[in-house]
Design a protein that fits this description.
Blueprint lengths: L1 H12 L5 E4 L8 E2 L11 E5 L2 E5 L9 E4 L7 E10 L1 E11 L8 E7 L3 E7 L22 E7 L2 E9 L8 E9 L7 E11 L3 H25 L1
Antiparallel strand pairs: 1-13, 2-5, 3-4, 5-13, 6-12, 7-11, 7-13, 8-9, 8-12, 10-11
Helix pairs in contact: 1-2
Length: 226
């Protein structure tokens, strides 16, 4: 009986565990990394730099895909709808084509219920750089942006965005990527997006209930053996 109750409480408490949710970008990708001779990026559910991501591919064994503003207008935007309660951190795999230093031509905006919005400007040669180690941009700050994958001179970098504490009690509704660069100067290229979140209040209640079951079972067992 004790084993059953403990197992049940674990099942009840499971949803309360803080999570990182990979976001499916299969409906928005418009380019293939194979076209840039970047062929070995892992696809599907993967972990890069300790962060889980979902990297889109057209079929198993095919190369990774991305969304890019290259070939688009100015500004060029991508809105990714989400519905995640208690978001506290955003994670992206963003690099550039024709990376430009210090321009701040790209930004990422997180929108949530309650009218909340937080925008992060990406500065070239600091927050973001070219995917290729070449004559464009090659530096990152190695704090909020770190390299997580390489293939020869090609690389993927992960950005970490710490959201304001006010997002913890709201539902994240969308992530908007904005590019005001141009082909030949600087263009945002997004490979993956994940969101870190805290449990909903109802999940915490379930967790407490699970602990209550364990405590009650332990008390009954102690009484039975007294």
């Amino acid at each position: 009986m004790m084993r059953f109750l403990v197992a049940a409480s674990m099942l009840i408490a499971a949803p309360a565990t803080a999570a990182i949710t990979p976001i499916d970008l299969s409906g928005v990708t418009n380019g293939d990394w194979a076209g840039q001779s970047f062929n070995t990026i892992p696809t599907g559910n993967v972990t890069l730099g300790g962060t889980p991501f979902l990297i889109h591919t057209v079929e198993p064994g095919a190369s990774a895909r991305y969304w890019t503003a290259a070939g688009g207008g100015n500004p060029e935007t991508l809105t990714v709808p989400v519905s995640i309660f208690g978001a506290h951190t955003g994670y992206t795999l963003i690099n550039q084509f024709w990376g430009a230093a210090g321009q701040g031509l790209q930004s990422v905006t997180f929108n949530a219920t309650g009218g909340l919005s937080a925008t992060f400007v990406l500065v070239g040669n600091d927050d973001v750089r070219d995917y290729l180690n070449n004559v464009y941009t090659n530096n990152i700050n190695n704090t909020t942006t770190v390299q997580v994958f390489t293939e020869g001179a090609r690389r993927l970098d992960r950005q970490t965005f710490a959201l304001p504490g006010s997002f913890a009690s709201q539902t994240l509704t969308s992530v908007v990527f904005t590019d005001t660069g141009s082909d030949g100067v600087s263009r945002l290229t997004l490979t993956a997006l994940s969101i870190g979140s805290v449990p909903e209040p109802s999940s915490w209640a379930m967790l407490i209930a699970g602990f209550g079951l364990v405590g009650a079972a332990m008390r009954r067992r102690a009484a039975a053996t007294a």
